[in-house]
Structure formats: structure tokens, C-alpha cells
Amino acid sequence: MEDLVLYAGATIALRYLRHGIFGRPERRLVQQVAALQAQEALELPQALVLAVPCGGPGQQSCEALKAKRDAREALPASNSPCKRMCRLESPGAVSKGGVVNGSPAGEAPTALPAPDAPANSLPLEPVPSAAARVSGSLPGPPARDAADVSAGSLSTHSQSKVPSKEGGDPLWSPMASGDERCSASLNRSHRVSPSAAARSPGGGGGSGDGAAGGLPVRPAAARLLELQQRQRSAERTRPLGEHAVHGVARRSRGPAGARRLATPQSDAQVIWLSDGCIFPSEAASHALYHHPDDAVKKQAGAWLEAWQRSLDAWSTSDAVLHDSSSTVEAQYFCAITLRTKVQLDYDELPAGAAASLRDSLVGLLLRYARGSRPTRTQLCLALAALAAHLPAAEWGGGGAVQWLAGRMSGEPSEAALPCMLEVLTVLPQEAGSYRPAVRPERRRAMVAELVSAVPAVLQVLATCLELHHDRSREQVLEAFGAWLRVAAGSAHLDGAALAAHPLTAAALAGLQESETFDAAVEAVCELVFCTASGGQPEAPMLPLVQRLVPAVLELRPRFAVLAQREAAERSGGGEGGHEGDDDIETAKGIARLFAEVGEAYTALIAAGAPEAMRPVEALLEVGAFPDDSIAAMSFNFWHRLARYLTSGFSPQSLEDASSAEETGTEEGRRRLAVFVPAFERMVALVRGRVRLPDNWDALHSDEQKDFKRNRFAVGDTLLDAASVLGAEKTLELLLAPLQEAASAGSGGWRTIEAGLYCVRAIHRTAPPVDNALLLGLFGGLRGLPEAPILRYTAAMMVSAYAQWLARSLRAGAATALLPDLLQLLTTALGDREACPAAALALRHLCEAAPAHLARYADALLGLYARVAASGPPPIANGGLGTALGAWPMSGLAGDEEDVLQVVEGVAHAVSALPAEQRRSALEAMVAPLVQPLQAALVAPGGREGPLPSPPASAALVVQLVDRLTVVFRFVADPEAVAAALGRVWGVFEAALARFHNDERTAEHLCRAPRYALRTAGAAAAGLVPALAGALPRWFAATRHGAFLYVASELVKVFGGQASLASQLGELLARLLGEACSRLRNLREVSDAPDLADDTFLLAGRALHYAPALVLQPLALLPALLDSAAAGLLVQHREACCSTLTFVARLFDADVLARCPPEVAQQATAAMAPRTPGLVRLLVAGAVGALPAGRTGNIADVLFSVLKATQQQGVQWLADAVGAIPDESAPAADRKALLVAASATAAHGQAADSSKSLEDAVEDLSELVRRSRRAQEAALRALLPGELLPHFMR
Question: In whole numbers, what is the pLDDT of the chain averaged over residues?
């Protein structure tokens, strides 16, 4: 027992001995260890007294360290435990004035017990409260005093003592976690069991150590423990190199000299270390950022995440931030932690602590005014979160901004100015944020407070503008833009006042200076946005508009110079240097200003006034800029302008834009005529941007993706232009480069490919069916150069114009083109790069014009025979390989998806054949697939059966079945498909017998009968007995949801046929009963979410088509309800939504109305006792057990329940909502939901809208989810005990 205490206490010494650098607190600790060792003749474990020899590898001598750290005191040789140990420097918890951990240097700690005090009565000092600095007693890092203990201060510069638990057993474990230590003073019970300590984040003490032998702790051991507790509480150790693994040591048997570290994840994840180190938050953060082992980083992240949720995080973060010797990364991490605590755990603070927390945050912000900017930003975010929690009245009446201005006014400007400006930038950015855990009405009130503070803020910013410090003007403009964004559309902005405001002048002047250019662009963009509404400037804002627009357009000459530089640089082949990069960024800023002006005033520009053309000219210059990303900044303006000109920006499709009322009036035609030249210039500017670069193949894949993305954007813009210019005029403009290249005998295939791409882009505004230009273009496709990319684009153009070609074929204009197009596509199928486009085009062409393609049925079936037989090479597996050896390979260059596209296209064409030919063609399509499928199912030696099959065999079966599925799905002949399914059903059964244990293969096998039933419909009635007998058997053997798919289709097709009701009822009872037996609790549902999804999809479909099939069997509905209750809170989205939909449909009045009275009565009797539990689970899901995105689904279910059960349902809902504690949702907020529920119930089945109920549910959900504590309290009250472990951290 005593050795264990000494072993644990001396780990602190080892931590510093191992790393060769000492600071004052660490040196004093080592002196204490040495003195105690000498005094009591302690024999420490060998691992703890190993000293690294001076001058060893990677170490420095004590003399060298002394020379380097002349500010440190020398370690007295007489007190050194080892004369040759190296010294460790670590920022220990040292208070000013020579106070070490609450005791003056050189004096014994004041809180140590008397020499004869027993271990279980150690007068350990209470834990410092998590709110020291918040309570007002400690403005900075203070020395400890009695007031801190009583008031509960945020000081972390003192040791933590854990009170003993009832019964006298001491909780002296030196490895007690921060959660335990902090909760000892702040928490309710002041009792923490050793087992709980072992499970807590950050570690725990050895279970039962204090009571193991009932031995008192000797004074020396207690003193060691005291020292170690102080070091652990201060959390101020340097990172430990390769041993910087988080975790807390706990006694465990293991290798000699080793300690077992229990990580926060689980006790199963252990790391054996020979030094027994205890790692605080700073060491864990160092491991997170720097440790080479990813597993260690992951563990460190988990430990730190758990630590951030603890009460101890308040005090430790504050201490680290006040300690100038802490590392930058530790400061940053603790600033993040403090920000997170203020946002999410504000209610952990004691009453009245907000003012002191505010003072502490401002003090820290000023401390880091010249320090790490990321740390300062996190502190600003913490202040913004505090502003979300505190109403304006608690800031002194003037709100947060005026309080901060007054507080900062007394500080030196070089520190106060950057802090004030950054806070003023962050505050509006966080307006309305959902990160702070506040009530919804408080979130809205904060936004209103900030908006009302805009005039005062602008005055403060104008004052700051007069001060001159580094980046001050840039920060002022950033804050100016942020506040404009918050105030946009409010009455607090006056156009005339803003036009004359010094901030506006500064923003416009900042456009001329490189240092402030970016911030000025942001501010001016926000000013422009504030002036517009509905595409026009607002009347009160006209003075500001008149100042902004000319100032922005005056940048055109500067932009032209930048464009010339960029063009010269590109033509010279230079890569550009730093100046070129600056030019690009400046050009982006100016282009953005032009685009903002154009988009803000599009409706005004669309009126066609002469003065409105200046922004249009500026945006044409943007479109002409050599850089694609800058040119693309104008595209949205052209889209908006085209919509205003053609459809008045109504939600009308572009295909119908030409018929818009606006374009039919004289004014509409006048406006179009005004902008036709501009759109023509725009088309001429952007059409060349789609041309592939000459070095296309040498470009990196990311560069190719960027280019393709830009081509898509250009294509959309060309479509907008076509809506204004008309398809025929646009075609002329797009094909002009091809005609010029053809007449000049130059251009190459890239020019042709660019032209085809542009024509493809405008297919939605295709010209009349007899357009000679487009017909001629299609007629010339066969003579294209041999380039794979060109073939790909040509095939994609055919695919895009499939509907236009079908109309032309019906009009007789394109009949002569069809053979050439088919030849083009067939040839492209043999090209690896063009094959996907050719397959897609063939499918679209056959789907759009099946009657015309049916004339080429023989050629298409020949193509199908080659394509459908393509697949993997014969499998070298004895008889199987021999059986497939004659299976021909096709020249198709694509993958399986391309094969399926071709098969679908041929199926569409076959569907247009006469009945007899169609049946023959269907047989010709099925036979080439069934024969190799049968061969693949024959085991070596000619035997059939469920023998182990090679993976290649399963892959082959999947390919063949998928192709057969496409045939069944798209050949529109119900009788023929039903007959074909009957013939091949035996093959499917044989395949299931062999591959039923392969889930993927079984799923593909079930798709074919499913789609065949969908096509065949009632014609497949003769197959119902066979399917009804086979599906339950295979499902019981495999429990694959795929078999439920087929049953779902049977219910949909035959659910209304009384002659098949008994067979379908038995089928559903067997399938759903077996499924429910595997979905008895949330764990089973979570382990098999796909099964749950399929089960309730099937049950829901049965309720829709034939409710009696589900409700009539006595045991089926109770089993379904129990499984629904078990899986209602499953996190899997599809499974959860299917369950909710089933429950909602079950309470639909129409479901019971379509059942016989006795069945409805039986169903009601099964539902009544289970509904209160379902309602309680639904409320739990709404307040946090399910993601917030499913609140609407939950509201729909509650709506159905209330309509069906009326006042009884309201009472059930009241019981559930009443269980939510006041700390999660006050009574008034809970009542709002019950009022909406009562209104729904009062209307009964006549209620037709769930909007009010959904709003009430969402309000309650948002309220309870505002913080982790409120959410967990609600879930503890609502969920049964067996479900709590699933939802509690």
C-alpha cells in the first residue's frame, strides 16, 4: 500500500528526470522527493530513479542547461536525487511572489495533515471552483486564499483535493481525473466512487485502493501525494516527446516496471509505458498536434474531447491562458475550449458569475492583443457567445458594444484597438448563430439588439478610423462590412447618412490601396447589397447608389490594364511572379464589384435605359478577361438579366421563356432589342473558352476537372443567351468558328469539338425540326476526324438532341440521318473513351423514337447479341470453364453500365414491334442470357447445388441477371414478360440455392422478378403461388431484405384481388413475423438497419394497398408495433423514416375504414396500450434522441396520432411533455406544444394541415437542443432505462 502511494507520488519526479530540463516548481518537487527518500529511507522502484547521464544522446549537460537558462535557479547538488540527472524545464503552476502552489517558496504546504493524521481524514483542501475568475474574486492569476474556496473561484493555481467518500475510505487517488476534482467542490454530491473515477474521461484512481488494507498513509507519503496532486491540478507539464500519450495511469498487472493507461475510449485500448506518466491536457494537446502515431493522436483527441465537457475545463483553460510560459498550441486549444464552454455549457456557471467571466475574457483578450491571432479570435468568439447569453440590460443598458467601448477606452490603444475591432467584426458574424446554447427567442433578441446597435457601432468605427495602428483601417473596413450585413434591410440604415459617412468614404478610398483593397471590396459589396431590393435600388438609398455606382465603374480602366497584363503574360508563356498573383487578386476584386452592381440592379438595367448600359459594358469586360475563373464571375448576371428579359424572373422554365407575356408586348420586344448586341458579344467572348487546351493530356487531373467545371458554366450561360437571342441566331454564332476554320482549312478537331459542345449546351432551346443548319451538322458527324474526345462529344450531342431528332423523324425531316447516326454510335461503342456517351445516346434515341428505331430491329438485335454476351473471360474451373468456353467476347469497349444502357435501348425499340415480332424478339433477348446463366450454375462434374462457388462465378451471375432485369423492366409486353419469368423462375431458384448466402448476389437475383412483376402486372397472377411459397423459405434462411422487395411488389400488384388475399396474407404473416423476431430492441435494429427499413416499407405498402393483410392476423400487428417501438429511435436515416412512415400510416383513418369492422376493432385493441409509449418515444426523438432533421417526420406522426385519438392522444402527449424537466423546457414552452396539439385534436379527421403542430414541435426541439445538459436531462426523463446508454455520452 505504502509502496504504491510512493510509486504514484514519485511519477512526477520521473516525468522531469526523463527529459533533462527543470523549472522552479519541478526542482522543488524533486527536492521534496529526495528529502523524503533520505528521511524515511524510501526505496523507490528502479524505473523511477533512473537518471539520464549528462551528455548522453540527445541530452545536454547540466552546465550547458544552466548557461542556456540563466534565469532559472541552479539545482543544489546536495538536494539532487542524482548528481548526474538532467534537468527538466516545465511551466509549473508558480504564483508570483515566490508562492509555489499556494505555499511560499521554501515553506511546507499549509494544507498538509498533521504527522499523526490517518489517511482517511486527510484535511485535503476543497477543489477550486470552475468559476474562479467568473465570480469576481480573482481578476488575474492570484494566490489562493480562503475566499476562493468559499466563493468558488476560477483559480487553477492551487492544488485539488478530493474529499473522502462516506464510510471513511479516502479518495486520495493521485490519478483522480479533472472531472472528479472539479465536481468535488462544484458538484452536488461531493462523493465520487473509485470505480467512477476509473471510468471518467482522463482516467481514474485504482479501484478500492484506499480501503485495500486500511493502512494509514505515512506523513511522507501524504506529502508526496500532496505535491503530486498540486502538479496534476495545475496541468502544466511540457509535452513528453514520444511518451506524450494521453490517459491516466491505473494499477494493473503487466510487464515489470510498466503501467497501464486507460484511455477514454475503453479499457480495452491500453498503452504500456515504463515510466508511469500521467498526462494532463497540455501534453495531450501536444500529442494531438505532433505525435507521429495516428493512433495516439486519435486517443489524444478523444481524451481532450471528453475533457472539454468536464467542469475542470473551465479552470484549466483559464490557467493555461493566463500562463505566459504555456505553449502556443496549448493556449489555442484552451481558447477553443473556453469558447466552447461559453457557447454550450454556460449554465454550468454559478449564478451571478457572468460579469466576472466577461471581465476575465476581456482581460485575456487584451493579454493576447499582440499574441497569437487564432487564440485571440477564439476569445472574441467566446465574448460573442457571452453576448448571446446576456441580454443588453446586463451589459449596462447600452448593450455589449457600448460596454466594450467603455471598457476598452481605458486601455492603451495599441492593445485595445485591435481587440475592439476584432470583437466588432466577430459579433455581427455570430448574430443568429445556433452555436450558443440559448433559447430561440433569445437568439432572435440578440439579432435585434445588434441591429439596433448599428448607429452606435458605426460611430465607434468612425472613431477607430482616426487612430493609426497596424491593420487598423483594414480591420475597421472588415467590421464595417460585417455590420452592414447584419443591418441590411433594416430601418437603421439611412442612404443619405451613409453616403456622407466617413466609413463609406474610407471604403471607396480603400479600393485604391493594396493594403486595404480586400476589406474595402467586402465593405463596398455590402453597401451595394444594402441599397437594393428586388433587383432595383430602394428610394431612400438613392443618394448612396449615386455615390457607389460611379465610384465602382471608375475602376474599369484599371481592370483593362490588368486584363492586358494577364493577356501579355499568357501569350509570352510566363508563369507569373508575385506581382502577377497580386494582379489576379485585384482583378478578382474589381470583377466582383462589377458583378455585385449588375446583380443588385438587374431589374433597373433590364429596363434598357442608356445610362444602365455602363454596368453591362463593365461585365462584358469581365467576360473577356483571360482568366476563366474571373470571366465566370459575370455569368450569374447574364442569367438574371436573361430571366428578367424573357420571363420577368418568374419561376418559368427556359423552354417556355419565348412565350412569356413580357416578351410579347411592345415594351418587352424593345428591351430585347436593346440587349441583343450585348448577348451576341457575350456569346462571342465565351464560346472559345470551351476549347480543349493543346496540352490537355498533360494536365493534372484536378486541372482537367476545373476546366470541365468551367465548360459546364459556359454552357449554362450560352443557354441563357439562347433564350434571349433565339436558338437559330445562337446556332449561327456558335458554328461560325467551325465555318471559318473549314474555309481556312485550319482549326483542327479541337475547334470542331468546342463547337459541338456549345451546340449541345443549348439543346433545351432547340430550333424548329426543319432547321437546315442543325440538320446539316448532324449529317456531317460521320465525317469527323478520328479523335476519341471528338467522338465522345458528338455522341453526347446526339444524346442531348434525341427528343429533337424524334420530332424531326416524325416530321420526316431527319429520316435519312438515322442510318448514319446509328453507324456513328455503333462505331463509337468500340472506342474506350467514347463508349459511355455512345451507349447513352443509343438508349436516349431508342427511348425517344422507338417506332422509327424498330425498323432497324434486326441490326439492333445483332448489336444486342454481341453486347449482351460480353463479360469476364471464361473461368478456369473445370467443367464451368468448358461450358463457357464458346461464349463469344464482344468488341464493346465500355464497362457493365454501358452494356446495360445498350440493352435498355434495344428493349425500348423491341417494345415498338408488332405483338408476334415482339415476343420473338423478347425470346431472342432472354435466351443469350439464360443459357450462360444455367452453365454458370453447374458445379464441376456436372452437378448442381449450393457448392462453394468462386467469386468470378458470382460476378458472372450478377452481370447476367442484371441484364435480364433490364430486359424484363423495359420490354413493354406484360404477357410475354410474365411467360418469360415463368420459364426462367426455375433458373432463379437454382441460383438462389447456390448463392443465397451471398447477400449481394441474392439482392441482384431478386431484382429480376421484382421488375418483371412490375411490368407484367396482373398477367403474372399464375406465379403468385410459387413466389408465395419460395420467398418465406429463402427469407427465413438468409433474412436478406431483397426477398421483401419481391413481396412488396406482389402486394402492390395483387393486393386488391380477393382471390389471392389468403395466399398474400400468409406470405406477409410469415415474412413480417420472421423479420420482427429479429427486431426486438434498439440494438438489434441498429445492427440490421436495412432489414428494419425493408420490413416497414413492406408493412407500409401493405397498409396502403391491402390493410387487412396486415391487420387481420392476430399476432402480426402487435409484433410490428413492438418492433416499431424498438426501432423508432434508430439513427439510420432510412430505417428510422420507414418506421415513422409506417406508424403514421397505421393511424390514418382511411386504413381502418377499408377493413372489416372486426378487423378494425382488433387493430384498435392492439394499438391502444402501445400508443402512449410510442408518443413518449416520439417526443424523445424530437428533443434530441434523433437528429434535428427528422423533427418534421415526427410531427407528421404526432399529427396522425392526434387526428385518430383526439383528446386521449392529447393526454398522452401531455404526459410525455410533462416529464421534461423545467431546466430543459419551462412549462410555458411545453404548453405551447399542447395548445397546438389540442387544436389538431379538436378538428379530428377534418384537420388538414400539420403546420402549426410542426412549428410547435420544432420550437420545443430547438429549445431543448440548445445545450447538451438540457437535452440529456430531457432524455433521462423520457427514455426508459434500457435505452439511456444508447443516447447518453
Answer: 77
Cβ neighbours around 129 below 10 Å, total: 27
- How are beta strands 87-88 and 21-22 bridged, if at all? parallel
Which pLDDT score is estimated for 1098? 95
Residues near 1183 by beta carbon (within 8 Å), at least 6 away in sequence: 1220, 1224, 1225, 1260, 1261, 1264, 1265, 1271, 1274, 1275, 1278
Helix residue ranges, H only, 368-471 = 373-389, 399-409, 413-429, 440-452, 454-465
Looking at residue 644, its pLDDT comes to 92
Closest CA to 626 of 708, 557, 559, 722: 559
C-alpha span between 1018 and 1010 (Å, rounded): 13
Cβ–Cβ < 8 Å for 248, 204: yes
Which range (102-116, 278-292, 752-766, 1217-1231) has the least confidence?
A: 102-116
Q: What is the Cα–Cα distance from 909 to 917, expressed in whole angstroms? A: 12
Which of 1050, 1047, 1052 is closest to 1022 using CA atoms? 1050
User: What whole-number distance in Å separates Cα of residue 853 and Cα of residue 418?
Assistant: 73
Cβ 821 vs Cβ 845: under 8 Å:
yes
**pLDDT, tens digit, for every residue of 985-1031?**
999 999 998 888 888 999 999 999 999 999 999 999 999 999 999 99
Strands 259-262 and 248-250, by their bridges, are: antiparallel
What does pTM read for this prediction? Answer: 0.74
Q: Which residue has the higher pLDDT, 91 or 376?
A: 376
**Helix residue ranges per DSSP H, 97-203:** 132-135, 146-151, 178-186, 194-199
Given a contact cutoff of 8 angstroms between Cβ atoms, the answer to whether 752 and 784 are in contact is: yes
More confident residue, 1267 or 676: 676
Cα–Cα distance, 905 to 1222 (Å, whole number):
64
Residue type at 640 in one-letter notation: R
Looking at residue 1079, the DSSP 8-state letter turns out to be: -
Return the number of other C-beta atoms located less than 10 Å from residue 1003's C-beta: 16
Q: What is the pLDDT confidence band of residue 1244, given thresholds at 50, 70 and 90?
A: confident
Helix segments in 937-1056, DSSP class H:
951-970, 974-995, 999-1016, 1024-1038, 1042-1054
For the beta carbon of residue 959, count every other beta carbon within 10 angstroms. 22
What is the model's pLDDT at position 663? Answer: 52
Look at the chain and count its residues: 1289
For residues 172 and 192, the answer to whether their CB atoms sit within 8 Å is no
Lowest mean pLDDT among 105-119, 287-301, 551-565, 893-907: 105-119
pLDDT band at 434 (very low <50, low <70, confident <90, very high): confident
Find out whether 311 and 187 touch, Cβ atoms under 8 Å.
yes
CB of 560 closer than 8 Å to CB of 622: no
Whole-number Å distance between alpha carbons of 911 and 977: 11
Which run of H or of E encompasses 103? strand 103-104
Q: Say if CB 331 and CB 372 are below 8 A apart.
A: yes
Distance CA 1210, CA 1172 (A): 10
Whole-number pLDDT of residue 659: 39
* Distance in angstroms (rounded) separating the CA atoms of residues 957 and 632: 48
